[in-house]
Every structure is written in structure tokens, then in C-alpha cells.
Amino acid sequence: MSILDDMAAALSNGSVRVVDLTHTLDPDFPVIVLPPEFGQCARFRMEEVSAYDHRGPAWKWHNISMSEHTGTHFDAPSHWVSGRDLPSNSVDAIPPQDLVGPVVVLDCVAPAAKNADFLLAVEDIVAWEARHGRIPAKAWVLMRTDWSKKSGAAYLNLQEDGAHSPGPSSDAIQFLINERDIRGFGTETVGTDAGQAGHMVPPYPAHYFLHGAGRYGLQCLSNLDQLPATGAVLIAPPLKIKDGTGSPLRVLALIEDVT
Ligand code: MN
Question: pTM for the whole thing?
Fold first, then answer.
């Protein structure tokens, strides 16, 4: 049998399962809030066009609007100034081969529960590799914090001095790119950077270094508690928006039942 025949059989008999890592697009789902001098990200909106009525007797449909960066979404290299001049840097130009690949999950639940400003450090990655093996090249690295289980004001966790949520340190993201050649980095929070990352050097280092190196971001992920630390495959194709800097998307993981 071919690999894909085996895969189809495994999907059919349940030995490979599909896990949905996506939040529902909903007007109430929080979007990132920037300082007031900057332009702001729009929430998801949906208006009814018809609902089996005089506006369309046999059909129901909606018009929707949102930011490229609303809900569970993908960040392309053109999202950041560091990636503005790279080739194939927008969502419509990313090679499709890049949109399916291996994924590892770093469990940061305990430290993030103790400290909303927890920063993933290089030492945490090295300790994770001592248990699970080296992060493979071109892997998605997802930072699990269980932040997706928060809702409402607790999700952004805005204080007088801005948002407080966990993320990677500048050193950690550079290590993942330069030493491990990752495909991208994903979080359960509203951005790939920590809530206070605007004060870091450079500001928003995950965005700065990932996109400057042609790597991708995923944020507002959920259900990371259903993934194994290693061995899953991520399917994360953004919408094909011309010159788009990002896009809401459905993120799926394939996991193998090894029991
Ligand atoms: Mn984004």
C-alpha cells in the first residue's frame, strides 16, 4: 500500500485522528488591542443577507467582515516590517508545501498559571528536548499555556500598563529559528508575542525575528492539551488573500493513536 492509502485507512479506522485547534469565529471573541495612537484590529462581524425569506426564499447566507488577524489566525512574513521585502511573503504566495508539516508542543501550563508574564526561555527548550528529543527542522513549535480556556477580559488580561499574557523570550525565538530552523511558532494567546513584548528589545521579538526570517505565526489556538509533545502533523493553510499579511483559518492536527 502507498503512504496515502495507509493514511486514508488510518483516518477511516480512527488510528489517526483529526483534532481541531480553532476557536469559533464569533463577534465576542477578543482581538488584540494596541495603544490608542495605532490603527486597530476589527472583530468578526456577520450580517444576514437572507434566511429562506423574501430576500432569498430557498437559501440562507451571510456577509462577514473581520481583520486578517481576527480569531485563530496565521501571520505571514509581510505582517512585520522585518519581512516586508522577502519574496513570497504574503499569504497568497506562500508555497503550499509549507502549510502542512510536523508539530511539537512545549508544555508551559504550570509556569504560565503562576505568572501571566511567563517567558519561554532557551533553557526551557533545552530541557524539553532532553525529554522528547531534538525539535525537527521545519517543525511548527506550539507554546501550550491553556490560555485558550480563558474568556472575556481574562483572555487579553489588560491592566493599566497593557496586556499581560505569556510568550517566548527574544533569545528563545532566535534559538528556535537559528538553531532549530523552525517553520513557525504558535500560541494560545492573541499574539505570538507576550502581552508585554512591546517593551522588549526589539519590540515584539517573535514577530520581528520570525517574519524577518520568512517564518510564520499562529495565534489564538485551542485544544493544544489534546496534542502529543511530538509526532503530530499540522495542517494550517491561510486564505489566499492577494497581498494578505495573515488570515483567519481552520487549524487541524493529525494525531496517531499509539495505544
Ligand atoms: Mn496576527
Answer: 0.97
